[in-house]
Amino acid sequence: MREDIIFHITTKAYFNSHKKSHEYVPESLDTEGFIHSSKGDQVEATANRIFAEETQLLLLVIDVSTLTSEVKYEQDESSGETYPHIYGPINIDAIMDKLDIHAEKSGEFKIAFSSNT
């Protein structure tokens, strides 16, 4: 998986309500000091763990090389996994794509990424 791309999971309504003219500023930036994001191989598990009650999600594909805020890879104490945390707003032009993700009939999200690079 490419290291210069990370993902932020949200809902379309939440994204639209926290998007300003040139940046996206979710509440976690104020409450925790950073924005949660995932590497490609973490997206499916994160979606199913955090958004189990949702039927549709919005997946932001973020180009780290054009992101104006600092990204730190930090270990989650409970799982031991390392996640990318964004320490500042997400500038809109760093969002390469916005993907609508729908839950399966079982209620689970099936999200897979692969890369030959």
Automatic annotation (TrEMBL):
<dbReference type="InterPro" id="IPR009297">
    <property type="entry name" value="DUF952"/>
</dbReference>
<dbReference type="Pfam" id="PF06108">
    <property type="entry name" value="DUF952"/>
</dbReference>
<protein>
    <submittedName>
        <fullName>DUF952 domain-containing protein</fullName>
    </submittedName>
</protein>
